[in-house]
Amino acid sequence: MPVQRSFHLMLTPTCKVEVGAQDITTALAVARDALPFLQDTHDEQRFPVSLSDSDDFQYTLTCLLCRMVNPQHASHSHLIAMHSHLVAMQEHLIAAHQLTPEHFRAACRVFLGTGDEGCYVWALAPVLAAQLHLPHKSYMRARRYTAAPSVPVEKRGPQPDGYVTLVFVHPFDASETRQDVFLVDLDALAWYGYRRGDLRVGEPLVWPKGEWSRADEAGR
Question: Torsions phi, psi of 113, nearest 5?
Fold first, then answer.
């Protein structure tokens, strides 16, 4: 099975998602598919459940193919109860939507949120989703909750050189948001770098060319 890499995609000026996928093409495809489900909050009022006795977090699990929320495992055994909700969701996906354990192992994971709270979406690569004739690539969501405080991100002063300006045009009113990006790489699909004022450590962020354009090339 191909090794997955971690991509940090800037899909909008205020939306950074982390994607586990084997290449940038797959990461962009599943992230764009998952974004509406990451931002949808219709199940937030559902009572979250723990996935293990030692877990400090609670989750609301949703099947994105039929909107079932927090399915229950048929067994009430304490030995099975520890992971009963996740097992029940996987059993539902197998029985109702023809997914297999191999699909689960090959799935891409998309995360939107902080280190403690946020939302995960699992999605299949485009080829696998097409083989199953799924309506979309995303098939399961887990919204994570905790009372733990968030940790502030360390900042530093802006660097004077090496930046390009990228422009995002909002679809509803055609207004623009600009971000100065310290560019470390680019290809036919995206720009890779760090926002002005951010620490240039860790994996670079990714600005997809389908959502962003360069201000100097766009004549803005």
Answer: 150, -160
Q: Are 156 and 199 in contact (CB under 8 A)?
A: yes
What is the block-wise mean pLDDT of the chain (220 residues), using blocks of 10 residues?
89 94 97 94 64 69 90 50 72 94 95 85 96 96 68 37 88 90 92 92 92 80
Tokens 């974004």 identify what position?
A: 35
